[in-house]
Specification:
about 325 residues; single chain; alpha/beta
Length: about 325
């Protein structure tokens, strides 16, 4: 019988900071930590959480400065991805969480990789959805940011895209999508995001995090070492119309990981808005399988080096499955 797990909403005080957290599922089940990206919040997981709660205990916090979590001034909180990870570590400790599956998206990716590289033994499985950790994912659209990171002058800042506004927030969802896929996105998504981003001082926070993304890029080799030496069981979910991270990022994971499952869909940066059911299906199988067989690839019956590439369009028609 299918158990219905309803999402609960809490505001928890962690190291003096109010964090908004969505959760569902049996606390005795494997923990699944969901880390959102820019410009969203745990709201992006609202439909996924009850599905994953069938196989795990789901925790989805709003990062500081996002959603319904506190957004202290930059004088009162250090807005780096390393420090965001420290705050999430404190949250997990407060909740008594030891090991967990780690779901990464966009800005949640550098946060999650700080968690993973600090405590590799705590990561039971890795799920990456439109999150970047290799040079291949940063195409020409990142040339202006690279120039600014190298030389943060006013002239180089003027060359950056103008994204910290309502139109830029909307484009995070819709940019590059065919009309049929655009129509699957409800407008309240970017209206809610912008309402939270428009809080006094929050745009400065977002620009500071964008600036700190350079530190994440500088860690790519460290992240590759983590992949090579610890071999986390990994699933990559990708919306192929993402204009922020190139699709070449997907198979860059294959370079260092011996166990990798990849699913590419006809969606965009916010894949769960168009392919939630498809993602939930493969994710629940992944969590269940890894929980049973163990996170160590030595426990797998499959030969090392296996990669599954699957694709589904908006009409849910299978496109391709291949094995190296």
């Amino acid at each position: 019988m299918l158990t219905i797990h309803k999402t609960r909403h809490h505001t928890l005080t962690v190291d003096g900071l109010d964090l908004f957290v969505r959760s569902a599922g049996d606390p005795q089940a494997p923990t699944i930590l969901l880390l959102h990206g820019f410009p969203s919040s745990s709201h992006m997981f609202r439909n996924l959480i009850p599905e994953l709660a069938q196989v795990g205990h789901v925790i989805a916090p709003d990062l500081p400065g996002f959603g319904f979590s506190a957004a202290p001034t930059m004088a009162d909180y250090r807005y780096t991805f390393a420090n965001l990870a420290t705050t999430i570590e404190a949250l997990l400790e407060q909740l008594g969480v030891g090991r967990y599956f780690l779901y990464l998206n966009d800005f949640g990716t550098p946060v999650g990789y700080h968690l993973a590289t600090r405590h590799p033994d705590r990561v039971q499985g890795l799920i990456v959805q439109n999150g970047n950790a290799h040079p291949e994912g940063l195409g020409p659209q990142w040339d202006a940011p690279r120039r600014f990171w190298a030389e943060p002058t006013e002239a180089n800042r003027a060359q950056l895209p103008d994204w910290l506004n309502f139109a830029g927030t909307r484009e995070q969802y819709l940019d590059g999508l065919p009309d049929a896929v655009k129509a699957l996105h409800a407008p309240e998504l970017w209206h809610l995001d912008w309402e939270r981003l428009a809080r006094p001082g929050d745009l400065d926070i977002q620009f500071q995090l964008f600036t700190d993304y350079a530190a994440h890029v500088a860690r790519f080799e460290e992240i590759a070492d983590y992949h090579r030496h610890h071999q986390p069981r990994t699933m990559v979910l990708w919306g192929r119309y993402d204009t922020y991270f190139d699709i070449e990022e997907v198979l860059a994971y294959h370079r260092d990981l011996k166990s990798l499952e990849v699913h590419v869909f006809d969606g965009g940066h916010f894949l769960l808005e168009t392919h939630m059911d498809e993602c939930a299906s493969v994710l629940t199988h992944f969590v269940r399988d890894v929980s049973i067989s163990g996170p160590d690839i030595a426990d797998l019956a499959l030969p090392a080096g296996r990669v599954l590439i699957a694709g589904r369009g908006v009409d849910q028609t299978p496109v391709k499955a291949a094995e190296r």
